[in-house]
Amino acid sequence: MSSEPEFGVMLSTFGDHAYPAAFRRVAATAEREGFDAVWAGDHVSFPAAIPDDYPFSRSGESPFHVGLDTYDVFGVLSHLAAVTDEIDLGTNTCIVPYRHPVVLARNALTLEQLSDGRFDFGVAPGWLRTEFEVLDVPFEERGSRTDEFLRLLDRVREEGEVSFDGPHHSFRTTGFHPVPESGRPKVWIGGKSGAAFRRVAEFGDGWTIFWDHPDDIAASRERILNAWRDYDRTGEPEIAVVRAVHVGADAERDTLLTGPADDVVADVEAYVDAGVTRVVLDFYTTDIDEQVEQVERFAREVTPSF
């Protein structure tokens, strides 16, 4: 093993298993068991028409549909900030173009304050074209709008009072107080494009990805490090992978992070050797009891090896 990884838990804010008591229970379990973070995804609304180009499945078929219960990620994490004490709370990932940049900056700064500096701000341009249509945001502008926001956020965190003239939004001097501590909140960039890797180097503290194999992460990390050096960044970026986990002999050993604890430990070691600094648990089940049991089992049987 090259270093000691952190561990997190992915909280679902969509579906029949997404409800306030479940959010509190999963977050409390993760904190009690010594996990470093709880992260949650971001959608504003699921349209009736969802194209088959979901980027995190081989078939492109999306797990989402128009009838899903859907909770606002900033509302959920603000709620959890009041019922947790130490665990980091993060968006993975907030879709930047969905919101006006001033509103989004205020959301992030507020959550940073409400959590006493525990907010992980994961951001990405988004993929669900029809959701952009619902929100009346041009899908083709999602990349440039993400860059615009990240440039604004850099200034907001340093200056507090900012005037801005960007390709999509311009405004006279306005305040963004209270300004967080230097370098806060930590910014994680999602995505696998060259533009995403450039954003990690230009604006980010880390990179986050779903499901990738250790070999793929190692290759992506090399590209990120090349960009990192181009921007004269010091140190190295953090890297998080979100992956479904099932610890137990009852699981078929047909994918990484499933099966007996020793096998899962070996898989985590492979991710660490590839450059991963945080492994975030997702789940094969929507049953909250089973999710909690997996968090507890992982803490008992896997994390002590690190």
From TrEMBL:
Matches recorded under SUPFAM superfamilies: Bacterial luciferase-like
Alphabetic keyword roster? Flavoprotein, FMN, Monooxygenase, Oxidoreductase
What's the short name of a Pfam family annotated to this entry? Bac_luciferase
UniProt enzyme class: oxidoreductase
Q: What is its EC number?
A: 1.-.-.-
NCBIfam families membership:
F420_Rv2161c (TIGR03619)
This chain belongs to the protein called TIGR03619 family F420-dependent LLM class oxidoreductase
Species assigned in the record: Halomarina halobia
